[in-house]
Known about the structure:
Structural class: mainly alpha
Oligomer: single chain
Radius of gyration: 23 Å
Low-confidence stretches: 1-5, 7-35, 52-56
Amino acid sequence: MKLRRGSTFEARRSAVAVVGAAALLTLIGACSTDTTNTGSSSSTTTVVPTTTVTAPPAEAVITDAQKQQLCTDLEAQLSNWRVQGPTLGRGGLNILVQTWAAQSGVINLQVVQNRAIVDDITTETCSDVRDEAIRSLDIPDLASGLVGF
């Protein structure tokens, strides 16, 4: 699996841009209603449609396919981490988890709120892969190897 550097940043930047655009449309809609009467017999009222953006629930369910994808991604990197060593491997773990989480904004939010969710998922879905990753990265658990969340 080839990971692109910066893809998490781009996903976050895109999400921020969408939310910002929605907020701007809401602000424009609220400020652009012209109700002044100029004294003529016909007055014009302009209303700009607004867009509502709702945040996904923080406790949305992570599907079995998403859990399995995390395990598959971890397993694919194990040999690299053994060769690279713990220092470089930990950076690779962060990139891998950030990329996996960014594929769904809901997962990203859950990982940010609780890094241990990665351990919970891997313990349930692929404990052997999790154990090997922990050994290769020389960390007590996967959550402790994650930074920036």
